[in-house]
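agent> fetching stored inputs for the heme C docking request
agent> found them:
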Amino acid sequence: MDDRHHHEVAKWERRWIAISGLMTLSFVILIAYSLATEGAHIAQSAARGSPDTLLQQAMFTDPGVRVVGPNQLQVSIVGQAFVWVPETIRVPQGAEVEFYLTARDVIHGWQVENTNLNVEVIPGEVSRLRTSFDEVGTYRVTCNEYCGIGHQNMLGWIEVVPASQWAADTAAEGAAVGEVMAEGGAGVDGAAVYAANCASCHGPAGAGIAGAFPPLAEHAADIAVTDGGRDYLIDAMLYGLMGPIVVDGVSYNGVMPAWGQLADAEIAAVIDHIVGLGGPAADPFTADEVAAQRGRGLSAADVLAIRQQVLP
Ligand code: HEC
Ligand SMILES: [Cu+2]
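agent> prediction call returned; pasting tokens
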């Protein structure tokens, strides 16, 4: 073998090793720079378990902002296709905020734009992240892990307001911070039931997704004022709905899960909520009306047959 060839090859190998070494070094410098200027925001795993058990924790049955100490907040967020619950979070400038995030269905990515806050949100795991926001403003939150057909709609907002304004707003809202929802009875917040159980498919404002999930805004109210429509809406909640339907000229052939596990008052409240999303006014639904439809043992296909009679 000719020694010259050996030298030639060795020379190029040294050059490439130097180039890759420089690349590694520049990556390390970039990381060090961002740690120095933006601080480290590395999410820790706070809990692991079955997704259902985690979601039953008070923090997640009622996600949102809680005051845990002077200038200290705890914020819990549930990611689900295709919404962050709650969608908007308001925090005071400079407060210590501890985020707790988990997912209801598939993996989502919680990314706060123009910051280095970026957490993989995993079903069966609670991620914890501590931070504070020094500048007043509104940050958009996106989902950066593809999670299905409505992924691009999965947006949220963090509003950072001056501490004085935050104190005034939360005093005005009273119950909105801390204990949010009264148990059962007329105190049930239909909007919260909707956000927690329905928004993932029908959208936060009930607009639906054409061809996949029917709209409820301006549609549930039409059903409610149709003969037999009230009982049909309750049946659809209690027993689900399956099979081909047409809403506003668009065909759907999906499965709507049954919601019988919700309390009567919650079902009444969530129907009031969707009826209130637009369209004709209807009388409020009552827990008694819901109770009267329980125990009929209908299947989702039976509910479709009822729909065909009510909405021919
Ligand atoms: C997993 C997705 C999903 C969730 C969550 C969901 N729905 Fe549905 N919903 C559907 C689908 C799909 C249909 C249409 C079923 C079909 O094609 O037969 C539907 C149909 C309906 C209908 C009937 C509309 C009509 O024209 O007859 C109502 C009312 C409704 N949903 C309300 C709700 C409410 C209230 C909640 C929360 C308690 C909820 N949905 C949660 C998927 C969902
Ligand atoms: Cu997502």
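agent> quick read of the result: The two ends are 88 Å apart (CA to CA).
agent> awaiting further instructions
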